[in-house]
Amino acid sequence: MTILETTSSFFKNLFYALFNILWGDFITIPLPGGSSLGLSLLVLILIPSGIYFTLRTKFLPLRLFPEMIKITAEKRNVSQKDAISGLQALIVSTATRVGMGNLVGVVAAISAGGAGALFWMWLIALLGSSTAFIEGTLAQLYKERDPLYGGYRGGPAYYIHHLFLKKNSARKRSLIAVLFAISGLICWCGISQVIGNSVSSAFSNAFRIDPHYTTIILVAVSAFIVLRKNATVKVLDVLVPFMAVCYFLMTIFIIIKNAALLPSVFAQIFSEAFGLRQAVAGGIGAVIMNGAKRGLFSNEAGSGSAPCAAAAADINHPAKEGLLQALGVFIDTIVICSCSAMIMLLAPSGLTQGLEGMDLLQTAMHHHLGNFGVIFIAAILWLFSFSTFIGILFYARSNVAYLFGDNWLSQTLYKILALVMLYIGGLATYAFVWDIGDFGVGLMTIFNMIALFPLAPQAIQSLKDYEQNHRTG
Known about the structure:
The protein is mainly α. It has 21 helices and four strands. The chain has helices at residues 3-23, 41-56, 60-63, 65-72, 86-97, 100-113, 116-141, 156-164, 175-207, 211-226, 231-257, 262-274, 276-280, 284-299, 307-310, 318-345, 349-352, 357-369, 371-404, 408-425, 430-472, and strands at 27-30, 36-39, 144-145, 152-153. The strands form two sheets. A two-stranded antiparallel ribbon has the order 1-2. It has a two-stranded antiparallel ribbon with strand order 3-4. Strand 3 (144-145) and strand 4 form a beta hairpin. It is globular, with a radius of gyration of 21 Å. Residues 276-284 have low confidence and may be disordered.
């Protein structure tokens, strides 16, 4: 074995040792019949946190859902040049939420954990809406002016900084904030690889196009957008609503076409989520874990990604942006992820058995809509991927600035790195690419949650103030 192979093996083993701390069985609960339920560190953090924030906000996801819808219809007023509105910030965060996790991620969750994994994705989303409110509101409370791009910037790195460093501290950066920012940049490079990998696979299946050519075109179009100063939000304003509506309407058509199968599909979801067969076989742990892991990766609640967009909003009350971000979790998981799950679950199980990733989803679409379905899913995946990529580079702005200061060189170099990862991902193995993204999002979640609990009372107070103002007009 060469020195290069030895070094590579060492770092890969180290990576998976850390990965298993985050996503492996942190504790194991014995179950009847000699089986057991393994729970990861992140599930142990996020589910109790979601329950706590849901109780503290008095069941915000259900109680204030009509208010969330109402805020999206408000007129877009911004007071600062180059600033974005609250709704535009929601569109940016939705661009990254409604992406790979909704298509390939749901496929991965159900492939590994069965139909019951979808239930746990729903539960994570409902609990995560409250968490998304807390972090979105805090991002607004601690946002600052952006001297490079105009408007505002912020996110977890900034509210973590204010938590751990006093206002007049001689230190310019907080260690925890630095670790969060680095973790974010690692995560978004990993997601860039996931995007390249999934798009090249989809186009290879649909059109027999060589992955090199597909990835080159994706990289070229992405570079044209992200290397320009303020093109990101303008593109996403048009792209995100269009692609989400197209995917939703196509799924509705498939559901109506297969309406007779719906009772059995929902019975399968709930029976496998709580089923005795899975518990006795020791498989219920896989159901919960895969649903929770893919749910987190998809809706991002608690990970600290979406607050990077929430902080950029020029909005007249911090709690408003928090409510919009809570709505984003609902759109992502309850609506779009469910669409992908229905496409899969309404196809004959024998047809998709043994398949994974885009092969599985495209096979299901071929069953429903023939060759058109394969082409449609490849095209919609391209749009989802493109929007996700330019969205995560919007997130990266504030984190790069926190680490390296306000300069165009560092901003441009990270964009180039992400573009390189996008290309490499088109040729990478499927499993490891997902693991890099999961690893990054896991680290972000740990560092973000360290700050979220001590700062949460400020967000809750902002909610009380908003509701009081709303009552008094």
